[in-house]
Amino acid sequence: MTEGKIGKLRRKFRVLVAPLDWGLGHATRCVPIVRELLENDCEVWLAGEGMQENLLRSEFPSLPFLPLNGYRVQYARSSVGFFPSVLFQIPKILIAIGQEHKWLRGAIKEHEFDAVISDNRFGLSHSNVPSVFITHQLSIKSPLGKWNETMLRRWNYNYINRFKECWVPDLIGENNLAGELSHPVNNPGVPVKYIDLLSRFEKKEDREIKNRLLFILSGPEPQRTILENKIIDEISHYPGTATIIRGLPSAQSVIPSTGMIKFYNHLSAKELNEEIEKADWVISRSGYSTIMDLATLQKKSILIPTPGQTEQEYLAKDLCQKKIAYTVQQRDFSLDPALEEARKLNYRFPSLGNSEGLHAAVKSFLELLYKSK
């Protein structure tokens, strides 16, 4: 064996991590995965574009980053048009999946990746390189009924089964956050591993400030802006203090802050961690990554699902029934009544794991890589 081949075998495992471009949640929940890989002495590369790229670059400025087009799905203004607009764009999504699969073949050839971790990007599987698919939606909710959900699950599993493993960011058993989404009756054919809740944040000392609100805006336009405008109208009458995180890490325009109300386009993980812990109440979308963050910090919240987004509507309703969060529809949201009703809820936060699920999944996957070399 030549010295060059020995050196090649001894280099660190080079792992590509790429999140979907639907909101920031897929990128934020990749942060603890990247940290775990780095702690296991892997060489991590990242891929994406837009807001996802900005967020991951801010978290990991020293890691190499490859440009990769997202699915770039556009959403309707009305809740009624949300699901039909996504269905109408299925051909566009399928083309994007095919393009990213072709992109991956070229990237592996050029950069010699040993493994790929894809957060909900269906095209990032490879026949010769072990790949992991991350999702909390094994089952996909549809407003068209069970027959359509069955079709969507088959379509979903058809892609998931092209990967080596499927990692689900949730807790095992009834003490979970995603309900039927992450715990279907039938799983895909590849090994499914529950890796506990994924959050960038850590619960520290009690910093809660009475009557302090934190609004975390996120998700697709135009609904993000519609909710932002509604909140700005409502907050002007609030007697306490408030912080509004606009969820726009790449925006240049800013909204001026006052002594009582602070506006930020985006905050680093450390700064957002502190703001959540200081808040008396957090008001946000019911995106799953946000829910995992709030559960990790055991924070009382009011969830406003994106209108027409069946996943968020299901999660918000399910968590309210479990008394983990209070929920209100965007069309019905008014700050004072929402706070009054939320205070009546006897919040019961789930008992959290200790990230052993993620540790075990990464360790097992790296052992698989060693055996394949």
Give the overall shape, derived from the CA principal axes: globular
Question: If you average the pLDDT, what whole number results?
Answer: 90
- CATH homologous superfamily name of the largest domain? Glycogen Phosphorylase B
User: If strands are numbered along the chain, what order do they take across the biggest sheet?
Assistant: 3-2-1-4-5-6-7
Tell me roughly what share of residues is in helical segments. 25-40%
Uncertain spans? 1-9
Gyration radius from CA atoms, angstroms: 21 Å
**Which CATH class of the largest domain applies here?**
Alpha Beta
Q: What structural class should be given to the helix and strand makeup?
A: alpha/beta
Beta-strand portion reads 5-15%
Beta-strand segment tally:
13
Multimeric organization: single chain
- Name the CATH architecture of the largest domain: 3-Layer(aba) Sandwich
Q: What is the helix/strand order?
A: HEHHEHEHHEEHEEEHEEHEHEHEHH
Major sheet characteristics: 7 strands, parallel
Give me the number of helical elements.
13
Total individual domains:
2
CATH topology title of the largest domain: Rossmann fold
Cα distance, first to last residue? 15 Å
